[in-house]
């Protein structure tokens, strides 16, 4: 049993008495539960501690592991510089985790002094690691530490990273405890730091219920809208930690939950048990993903098929990108069009034209699909082996019309064009996370390099979106 223990813990600095003072008493349940968690880590016989934090160097396309031999950190940012730790890393475990994570295609960045300088990263332990470490030390736990930063990867890959962690520990014959550091909703009350959302408490209740039942499938299938509105920072670390127990029964126990400052703090224990074939979640995830991919390809619209076939022909080196016969009449006209590429829920490229540049919509889509894949400066070019995982959408633009102010905008219905001094920024309608016209205009301004207070000309447009 390579991973001998797991846990979920919050990380508010106010929980540390040297930081919070009297306010620390408001989270006394969490503090006591953290000491109990530390006691269980010690009793597990773990030889190395892995802490997964959402506040380390977080990347969209990979996972960072701190690889410096000597690790240091303090809570000086929170007024308690004397709360500081120096701890040894476990380089052999770091290397083995990175090697095993690469097998399912997960990019792992081992952050040492040289890498930190190259990417401008901080080698200091973040508070997502420091706060749990404070309570573990108080409980007598003093182990080598491997700090991991969560990645903004698809849940399936995060879960696979946990499996790689377990496989690395098993290969090295090392007993490892893994802690997921993360707070739940930051939107529990009107005075919460991230604002108030009534669904914040719903999210926290559901997470606590699912963790107590060790229901990782339920966690992986949480409603995306609920997660977004919760404003949490703990879900991804939790998924990564559960991945370390794939194929095992897990005895889970919520030791405490409270939210006195408008943020949910949960402490939970995850104790691995005997092998259980029903808990081989990775196999289920892989099968479900393959089924979803096949269904998506089967149901793609005509224009999306044009975009996909154009990409396939481009990578095959064929000169003809699309079939010029059998073009439906509605797509034989000219119009601007945008092609958006997503991979595992993350944007992978988006390029389009406001006014038509080619002889008909089909050619517009074919050419913009290629540009979105290999010419979007925000991303590395798409590779041929990524094509099956791409989710493609096509937006055909209607004629833009001027508006006097943001009052004439609706980000769910209309896209926006912002113009000033020869600069132009565009944002499509109905994008995830864009809820107000003010947000929409601000983003379009930034894309065009237009300052927040510069006078602009606003235009709106509708699109017909194809999936």
TrEMBL record:
Pfam families reported in the protein's UniProt record: AMMECR1 (PF01871), LigB (PF02900)
Gene3D superfamilies (alphabetical): Hypothetical protein ph0010, domain 1, Hypothetical protein ph0010, domain 2, LigB-like
Residue ranges of coiled coil: none
SUPFAM superfamilies membership: AMMECR1-like (SSF143447), LigB-like (SSF53213)
Sequence ranges assigned to domain AMMECR1 in this UniProt record: 298-467
GO MF annotations, alphabetized: ferrous iron binding; oxidoreductase activity, acting on single donors with incorporation of molecular oxygen, incorporation of two atoms of oxygen
InterPro entries reported in the protein's UniProt record: AMMECR1, AMMECR1_dom_sf, AMMECR1_domain, AMMECR1_N, AmmeMemoSam_A, Xdiol_dOase_suB
NCBIfam families: AmmeMemoSam_A, AmmeMemoSam_B, TIGR00296 family protein
Protein name: AmmeMemoRadiSam system protein A
Gene designation: amrA
């Amino acid at each position: 049993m390579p991973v001998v223990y797991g846990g979920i813990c919050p990380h508010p600095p106010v929980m540390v008495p040297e930081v919070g003072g009297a306010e620390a008493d408001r989270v006394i349940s969490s503090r006591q539960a953290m000491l109990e968690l530390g006691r269980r880590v010690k009793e597990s016989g773990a030889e190395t501690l892995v802490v997964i934090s959402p506040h380390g160097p977080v990347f969209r396309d990979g996972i960072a592991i701190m690889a410096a031999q000597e690790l240091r950190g303090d809570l000086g940012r929170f007024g308690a510089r004397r709360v500081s730790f120096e701890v040894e890393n476990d380089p052999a475990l770091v290397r083995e985790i990175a090697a095993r994570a690469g097998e399912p295609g997960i990019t792992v960045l081992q952050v040492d002094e040289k890498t930190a300088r190259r990417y401008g990263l901080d080698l200091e332990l973040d508070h997502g690691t420091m706060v749990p470490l404070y309570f573990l030390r108080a409980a007598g736990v003093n182990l080598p530490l491997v700090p991991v930063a969560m990645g903004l990867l698809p849940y399936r890959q995060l879960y696979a990273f946990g499996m790689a962690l377990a496989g690395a520990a098993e290969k090295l014959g090392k007993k490892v405890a893994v802690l997921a550091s993360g707070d739940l909703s930051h939107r529990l009350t009107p005075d919460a730091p991230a604002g108030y959302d009534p669904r914040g408490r719903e999210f926290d209740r559901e997470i606590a219920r699912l963790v107590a039942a060790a229901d990782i499938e339920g966690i992986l299938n949480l409603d995306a809208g609920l997660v977004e509105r919760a404003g949490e920072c703990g879900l991804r670390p939790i998924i990564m930690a559960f991945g370390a127990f794939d194929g095992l029964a897990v005895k889970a126990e919520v030791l405490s939950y409270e939210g006195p400052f408008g943020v949910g703090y949960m402490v939970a224990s995850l104790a691995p048990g005997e092998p259980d074939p029903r808990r081989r979640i990775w196999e289920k995830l892989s099968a479900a993903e393959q089924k979803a991919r096949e269904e998506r390809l089967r149901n793609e619209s005509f224009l999306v098929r044009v975009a996909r076939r154009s990409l396939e022909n481009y990578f095959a080196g064929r000169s003809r990108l699309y079939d010029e016969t059998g073009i439906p009449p509605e797509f034989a006209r000219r119009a601007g069009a945008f092609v958006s590429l997503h991979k595992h829920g993350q944007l992978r490229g988006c390029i389009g034209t406001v006014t038509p540049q080619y002889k008909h919509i089909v050619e517009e889509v074919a050419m913009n699909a290629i540009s979105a894949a290999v010419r979007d400066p925000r991303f590395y070019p798409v590779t041929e082996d990524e094509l099956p995982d791409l989710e493609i959408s096509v937006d055909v633009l209607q004629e833009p019309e001027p508006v006097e102010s943001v009052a004439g905008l609706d980000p769910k219905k209309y896209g926006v064009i912002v113009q000033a001094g020869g600069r132009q920024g565009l944002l499509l309608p109905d994008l995830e996370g864009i809820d107000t016209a003010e947000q929409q205009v601000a983003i379009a301004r930034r894309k065009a390099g237009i300052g927040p207070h510069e006078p602009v000309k606003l235009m709106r447009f509708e699109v017909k979106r194809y999936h």
